[in-house]
Amino acid sequence: xxxxxxxxxxxxxxxxxxxxxxxxxxxxxxxxxxxxxxxxxxxxxxxxxxxxxxxxxxxxxxxxxxxxxxxxxxxxxxxxxxxxxxxxxxxxxxxxxxxxxxxxxxxxxxxxxxxxxxxx
Length: 120
Ligand SMILES: NC(=O)c1ccc[n+]([C@@H]2O[C@H](COP(=O)([O-])OP(=O)(O)OC[C@H]3O[C@@H](n4cnc5c(N)ncnc54)[C@H](O)[C@@H]3O)[C@@H](O)[C@H]2O)c1
Description:
Elements lengths: L1 E5 L4 H12 L3 E6 L15 E3 L5 H11 L3 E4 L6 H6 L1 H20 L3 E4 L8
Parallel strand pairs: 1-2, 1-4, 2-3, 4-5
The structure holds nicotinamide-adenine-dinucleotide.
């Protein structure tokens, strides 16, 4: 299965990528590196530098890599940020993730985790 891991250069995403590779899955990492680190992506794993709000870039990644499933970790996970700017953090996270999942789920399996995001 070809799996797109958004936020795959971050903490949880990079561990997930490592586990998926052990399961023989084909993995592609999609990350804007706002918080993640390029070296956290193992050598040989395709890396797409892009934002989940960038529809064109996402569509290209889905097409280029024949994606079957998405595991979505691309989000701001810092509690401090969401405490300082609660409405902004909520709006940015919710709209980005909700818009992204809506576009993805029609054709792809989709998994989302969040410690601070609620989508009504
Ligand atoms: N850290 C935990 O213990 C934990 C536990 C359960 C769930 N989660 C959830 O997992 C997700 C990731 O958490 P984390 O701790 O790995 O955070 P992290 O900051 O380490 O990783 C997030 C990654 O997403 C990328 N990113 C952020 N916004 C993006 C955007 N708009 N487009 C593309 N890439 C973007 C960042 O560059 C980063 O690599 C969050 O939703 C968090 O709530 C975290």
